Amino acid sequence: MSKFAAYSVDKNVKQYDEYKFTLPELYREVAKEELREDAIVREKALTEMRHWIVNNPHILKCRMDSKFLLRFLRFRQFSVPMACEALERYLTMREMYPSWFKNLDASSEKMKELFMGGATSIVGQDSKGRTVVLFRIARFVPEMFEPPTGGIFIALLIEAMLEWEEVQIGGLQVMVDYTDMDLKLFEKWGSSELRLIMEAYSRWYPMRYNDTHAAKLPKKALPIIEKILSFTNPKIRERINCYANVSEMEKHFEPTMAPKGYGGTVDLDGDVNPAMWKRIEQQRDVILGLDRMEIDYDYYAPIWDEQNAALAAETPSV
């Protein structure tokens, strides 16, 4: 059941929320060192971004609360023009592909089943403030992860985590265990669908990714993984580390965060996943409330098509 109410999308709201930094001191330090964020920079940037949204006739409805706008400001290290551009791309993505990026409903039994199957675990935050996410690929049931359901599931998790300021600031560290991967997993995914979700996850959502560690990729799966990676932001591709065995990958878990089966004692299935899904469910109304934002579709659609045609031309062939 949702614990938090949806935010207003009235961009002409008369009074804005008063932002308060409530995270541990570690995040204040990371924000300053990596994002150039402090109280003065933050307040100035929020004021400028709100002014830009209010005066942009092509953004009709938009969340104006600090936490939402800080997604984009932190993503672009407080460059207001770049943050505004990122916001436009995000809103256009949602409008162009509503069947993939809208109606992300945590009350869906299918979404809950996908999460509680344990293929994806949001393990928690490490000593550097990064949120560690583990994928156990063998746990994905191919028939359940077919398009667009699989893409919707990951989009729901991303939107949920972007509501958490520790993720906005610390970013993600991704761990991927390919052991016993079912090669049927991407059997029904075409190139256009793979391109769509990978560009969304790595370019259009304002998510900060740190290193990715992956292990035990079957040789037969290499062509499809290479195709998927070809659609990913090049900066993210450069941060991917691959290992022949899981024991090498698990060294990158901090001891207190290492799950059972990966050199540690953290119980993902019994403790972490149920608690994390409850936290996601509590945000149901907030995430669904994003669907009430509106843009001038006729204005942005041609710009989107032009930009992404250029992006497709730059994508390396596999």
Tell me what the structure shows.
- By secondary structure, this protein is an alpha/beta fold.
- Helices cover 49% and strands 11% of the residues.
- The protein contains 15 helices and seven strands.
- Strand 4, helix 9 (191-204) and strand 5 form a beta-alpha-beta unit.
- Helix 4 (80-96) packs across helix 15 (297-314).
- 33% of the residues are buried.
- The model has no long low-confidence stretch (mean pLDDT 95).
Task: Give the topology, please.
Layout: H1 25-35, H2 39-54, E1 59-61, H3 66-75, H4 80-96, H5 98-101, H6 109-116, E2 120-125, E3 131-136, H7 149-162, H8 165-170, E4 172-177, H9 191-204, E5 209-215, H10 222-230, H11 234-237, E6 240-243, H12 246-249, H13 268-281, H14 284-289, E7 294-295, H15 297-314
Parallel strand pairs: 3-4, 4-5, 5-6
Antiparallel strand pairs: 1-7, 2-3
Helix pairs in contact: 2-3, 2-4, 3-4, 4-15, 9-10
Shape call: globular
- The number of E-state strands comes to 7
Strand content: 5-15%
Give the strand order, joined by hyphens, for the main sheet: 2-3-4-5-6
Give helix and strand order, one letter per element, not per position: HHEHHHHEEHHEHEHHEHHHEH
- Biggest beta-sheet profile: 5 strands, mixed
Helical fraction: 40-55%
Helix-and-strand structural type: alpha/beta
**What is the arithmetic mean of pLDDT?**
95
The gyration radius over C-alpha positions equals 19 Å
Question: How many helices does DSSP assign?
Answer: 15
The low-confidence parts are none
